[in-house]
Amino acid sequence: MQRLSKGIGDKRLLRLINAYLKAGMMDDGLTEQRVSGTPQGGPLSPLLSNIVLDELDKELESRGHSFCRYADDCNIYVKSRKAGDRVMTSIVDFIEKKLKLKVNNAKSGVRHCSDVKFLGYTLLPEGGIRVADKSIDRLKDRIREITRRNRGVKFEEVIRELNVTIIGWTNYFRLANIWLTSFRELDGWIRRKLRCYRLKQCGRRYTIFKLLRSLDIPEGKSWNVVMYSQGWWQMSKKVAVSHAMNLNWFAQYGLQSLYLRMKV
């Protein structure tokens, strides 16, 4: 509040912010007194963090550091490990003594930029930007959840949910200019998950046989798929199944492509 009062002359606004900060929080139907911080997820939290941490930005600028800050997440870029250790010590001292804030030591440290995830990206020394490994892992976890074979949801609905995820994900990560993960391979993995889902929907062997025949797979190859496969995942890898549920088949359902969207 002292920091805000230096730049805000409207006492009514200051009283309103102060009331927000002192408001209790609801836990299991009971109101508890708040002793520190702001309500998580509220619009006041990022606004106040930017006001308070503006002083940190100015301090880093005065030192000539290259840095990037998003809310309370900040990366500072220096040329060596030794410089990183020195800057880390001095900046933590500035934040905790001057700004009266607490640095999360568990999440903070001196690391090579290629080992750091920032807003879902990893920035490389030569200026390249790639999608962080954890972001890829979270995407795959989301796809596994959508294509879970015991969901009992229509195939068209599964495609729709996947498209929402793929479109949103690629819109966000379109800044990436280096691909360490092959999005072609991810596309293939998604299609195989969908083949499993569609085969599982058929349930019985004869129903699977009829599905493959309806997709122009010869009778002998169709029987070979249903009689000599152990499990849905193995069945989805059969050449006959791949030919039946090919790119054109998925295009008819409107399935979006990670590779093509990232390539644009």
Q: In what order do the strands lie side by side in the largest sheet?
A: 1-2
- The unreliable regions are none
The coarse overall form would be elongated
Can you count the beta strands?
Answer: 6
Radius of gyration: 27 Å
Structure class: mainly alpha
Count of discrete alpha- or pi-helical segments spanning 4 or more residues: 13
How would you classify the quaternary structure?
A: single chain
Q: Mean pLDDT, nearest integer?
A: 90
The H-and-E topology, N to C, reads as HHEEHEEHEEHHHHHHHHH
The helix fraction, in percent, is: 55-70%
Instruction: Indicate the proportion of strand residues.
Output: 5-15%
- Outline the biggest β-sheet: 2 strands, antiparallel
Task: Tell me the span between the first and last alpha carbons.
Answer: 47 Å
Structure report:
The chain is mainly α. The chain contains 13 helices and 6 strands. It has helices at residues 2-5, 11-22, 44-62, 81-98, 133-146, 155-172, 183-202, 205-214, 219-227, 232-236, 239-244, 247-252, 258-263; strands spanning 25-27, 30-32, 66-70, 73-77, 121-123, 129-131. A two-stranded antiparallel ribbon has the order 1-2. A hairpin with a 5-residue loop joins strand 5 (121-123) and strand 6. It is elongated. The model has no long low-confidence stretch (mean pLDDT 90).
Quick tags:
264 residues; mainly alpha; two-stranded antiparallel ribbon; 6 strands; 8% strand
Summary, kept brief:
With 264 residues, the chain is mostly helical.
List the helices and strands and how they pair.
Blueprint: H1 2-5, H2 11-22, E1 25-27, E2 30-32, H3 44-62, E3 66-70, E4 73-77, H4 81-98, E5 121-123, E6 129-131, H5 133-146, H6 155-172, H7 183-202, H8 205-214, H9 219-227, H10 232-236, H11 239-244, H12 247-252, H13 258-263
Antiparallel strand pairs: 1-2, 3-4, 5-6
